[in-house]
Write a structure and sequence with these properties.
This protein has about 260 residues and is an alpha+beta fold. Helices cover about 25% and strands about 25% of the residues. The structure holds zinc ion. Zinc ion binds near residues 182, 185 and 193. Zinc ion binds near residues 182, 185, 190 and 193.
Length: about 260
């Protein structure tokens, strides 16, 4: 509701607003701002990149060559076969960033990604990812472990149990999967955690030498870490929304009035 008052000649007053009682940002925006606030406090800059990509940036430069089985796991939507596609993850921005910026660098990349998925409560053809990258001399796994530990403390609290386990991702070596204890069943197993007791929050690892080489960085001199997470999953965990389609559909009833 907005009330406009005509300005009187010579008056500084031109209009006044009556704020609406029920305005609130989208839950995804809210979580995105919280996460970005944390990484900014550690000196990470926010960057972005194109959602329509070439095969090179989406796959090849990220150590996923033409015959790699990881391509099968990311059902791709092609704009123009075989080279132009909708990015299947936000990782291509890592490549653009390393090509365009001076080292050292620390960036985070919030953005949308697309896959040819059956739409259901846990999968959508479009989803939000949140990527991070740091490249410098002497970066090692200890730095990554510390940053992720601080991030989990910030987001879930230091009392929430977490685990770091070895996991394979083509663009990193070694790779990590990071889980927290399921908050719905405290580890005993339920439908939310698919009866594992743990919920995977993000994937991470040390940037693979092949990825650094693909952008002309000497991996004997520089190293880096990268991490990526599904932002929608964080939003659903924070808000109790159990159907990802609610985040992108027109039903806004889950947004509480303030
Ligand atoms: Zn559970």
């Amino acid at each position: 509701m907005r009330t406009v008052v005509a300005a009187k000649p010579g008056s500084m007053r031109t209009c006044r607003y009556r704020p609406r009682a029920s305005v609130r940002v989208h839950p995804t925006t809210e979580v995105l701002r919280r996460v970005t606030g944390f990484f900014r406090s550690l000196g990470f800059e926010v960057t972005d990149g194109p959602e329509i990509e070439s095969d090179f940036y989406n796959f090849t430069a990220l150590n996923i060559p033409l015959d790699h089985p990881a391509r099968e796991m990311q059902d791709t939507v092609y704009v123009l076969e075989p080279d132009i596609l909708l990015r299947t993850h936000t990782s291509p921005v890592e490549i653009h960033t390393m090509e365009e910026r001076e080292l050292p660098l620390r960036v985070v990349v919030p953005g949308k990604a697309y896959r040819y998925e059956d739409v259901n409560p846990t999968n959508n053809y479009m989803f939000f990812q949140y990527e991070g990258l740091a490249v410098d001399r002497g970066i090692h796994m200890g730095h990554l472990r510390w940053v992720l530990g601080e991030f989990l403390d910030y987001l879930f609290g230091p009392e929430v149990e977490r685990r770091f386990r070895a996991k394979y991702y083509p663009q990193v070596e070694p790779g990590l999967g990071v889980d927290i204890l399921c908050r719905f069943c405290s580890g005993s197993g339920c439908a939310i955690c698919k009866h594992k007791g743990w919920v995977e929050i993000l994937g991470a690892g040390m940037v693979h030498p092949n990825v650094l080489t693909s952008v002309g960085i000497n991996w004997y001199e520089y190293s880096g870490f990268a991490f990526g997470m599904g932002l929608d999953r964080l939003v659903m965990g924070a808000t109790g929304i159990s159907d990802i389609r609610e985040l992108y559909g027109p039903r806004m009833s889950y947004i509480p009035e303030v």
